[in-house]
Amino acid sequence: MFDSGDTPPLPSRIAALVHAHFDALPQRSKPHVYPDGSREWIPMTGIVAVLSRSGAKCLSASHIPRCRGLVLHDCHAEILAIRAFNYWLLTECHGLLAEEKITDPSIQTDSQPNKTQPPSSPFIRKRERRNDTQTPENSTEWPPFELQPGLKLYMYCTCAPCGDASMELCMASQEDATPWEVVRESSSARSHEEMLDGRAHFSLLGIVRRKPARMDAESTRSKSCSDKLALRQVSSLLSCGTSRLVAPTESAYLAGLVLPADEINATGFERCFGERGRMKVLVGRTWAGRKEEGTIGYRFHPFEVLSVPAEEVEAQWAFAKPKNNIPVEEDGTESKAPPKSKPGNVSVIWVAAPSHAHSCAALSDTGSKSLPSLRRTTTGLFENIINGVKQGHRATTPVVRGASSLSRAKLWALVRNIAQPSACDDLGISGTGLADDTVLHSFQQRVLKPSTYGDFKLVESNSVDPLGVRQEAMREAKSVLKGWVRNSGDESWGLDVLVDPQKRKR
């Protein structure tokens, strides 16, 4: 593909890196190839160079209230990748804070002597703040950490995201690619929820769609990957919980989306994500909170779409969804049909370990007794997921042992542990240890106070809460993405759901 002395372009290097990590996974985490030649196919997504992800599954709307924070609602590869990125970022912050306590000359821990060199991370840093005389009154209390300036995040996907960006590709895969007109009922005759369309209604473009599914399957309220990625161009890759700890700087936004060249339709991608498409009214819009502080704040940050030659991906990815068209020979006869295939039902999650590892109750369950080392990269999390829970468990009767580390309950527990460093096994520090830092103390108060997940996501009434700025930005973005319906019903539970009534015997 390249001469020996040539350096492959950036998109090719990103794709090769993600594929190399996937190839190093254990065989049980990969799609099956059966003795008759038939095989499973699965989409894969990775955020370089932190994680790799595969999957394609969502829960129906009626199942959501039974989840109690223990089941993943959306297992499409792109969404798992974003959740895993937030998990990794939280562990990176957690490790750095824990290391600071160990190296703090005023604190002597039980496990390690004091060190003199302050800890650091190549990915995050403590945010530089103005002193009290320089800080305007009632300014937004932005979180204590930020991603390193100049850091860029790229997402690689083996297929186009479902939803609006891929509608032209869906049309082209039909025997008749002409969009058919659909007479839609008035808004008074149809509920707002019914206006979410899956794969159908090809003539309706630039709208929010729910995740596609079989025609006989119960509908879901999970928005398509296209719509969720479009929203992330405003809200950044940071989740609600991570936004309590990491400030929304430019580095927190996706710099580029990397795809095989034959999975990119310029018209669809520009309409869905671009500055001239449905997001155009947000161009130049910023949400910086009260008394803007430097480069911190939310903004419309469109990512770049980068392509990898299709033949490169084909050579590296044996689990792609087969094309519908059967190749034709030069003499006009059809080639032999490809082996039968079906979508795989296992989602594999792999996340790199943080720069500063330490023992912690929230990190003790890494998903496997033996963790693989991929490409000399230490594993922080490795899980196989089926129907939103760990393999071997049932989503219909969720239990804490089956909950993924990326589930709502487990991620909330991790955020709380960061606010309570005394909960970590290897620090040997009494008390919280955060009260000496005003911003960290504010983070602690906002995290430890809520009793339910719904309360945890609520924004404080005062104007200095940074989640208020995030909420305002997302509200305006969702109004532009017409037809956004909230996927509610899984908020009224507390962290007592993580108490296992039947602990395994040691």
From TrEMBL:
One of its GO terms (molecular function) is RNA binding. It comes from the Eukaryota. Residues 54-493 form the A to I editase domain. InterPro entries: A_deamin, Tad1. PROSITE patterns: A_DEAMIN_EDITASE. Residues 105-118 have a biased composition (Polar residues). GO terms for biological process: tRNA wobble adenosine to inosine editing. Residues 104-144, 324-343 are annotated as: Disordered. This is A to I editase domain-containing protein. It comes from Penicillium argentinense.
